[in-house]
Design goal:
With 145 residues, the chain is α+β, with helices and mostly antiparallel strands. It has five helices and seven strands, in the order H-H-H-H-E-E-E-E-E-E-E-H. Helices cover 36% and strands 18% of the residues.
Length: 145
């Protein structure tokens, strides 16, 4: 759990972004909740601490963080955008039952490397995901039987 405000300020300011209170709190939430949250989830979690916080502020902050390569966007469903603070390319597992998204570390050889050329096309980002039933849901099924 990363709660050191000095470290969070450093992460933000090292990318040329002013470390305001709201930006720090949004980044702190992302670092401490690796659940790939939506704007709505971030808003619900933080509005209790920051009553003046708006969804617009969260959208603007996240768009700035994306622009400055502080966070990445994920859009698996085509409907909702989620945010990820893990900088290196990695894959995800999406549970079809509980809809949670988990980071997974799997070997995927050459195609996982960014800045490679494939068929004359420069690869700048590689993302992938797996769908199924997560181990927590599977264990719940076993417990019910």
């Amino acid at each position: 759990m990363i709660t050191n405000l000095k470290n969070i300020k450093t992460i933000i300011s090292s990318k040329g972004v002013k470390a305001t209170f709201q930006r720090i709190k949004i980044m702190e939430y992302l670092l401490n909740n690796k659940s790939h949250p939506t704007v709505e989830e971030i808003f619900i979690a933080l509005v209790k601490q920051i009553p003046t916080l708006s969804k617009t502020t969260i959208y603007n902050t996240l768009n700035l963080f994306v622009e400055k390569n502080i966070v990445k966007t994920l859009n698996f469903s085509g409907v909702e955008t989620r945010y990820d603070v893990v900088a290196k390319s990695h894959h995800h597992f999406i549970c079809k039952r509980c809809r949670k998204i988990y980071d997974v570390n799997v070997e995927c050889n050459f195609l996982c490397d960014e800045n490679k050329v494939v068929n004359g096309n420069q690869i700048e980002e590689v993302t992938g995901y797996f769908k199924g039933i997560c181990k927590k849901c599977l264990n719940n099924d076993k417990a019910l039987n």
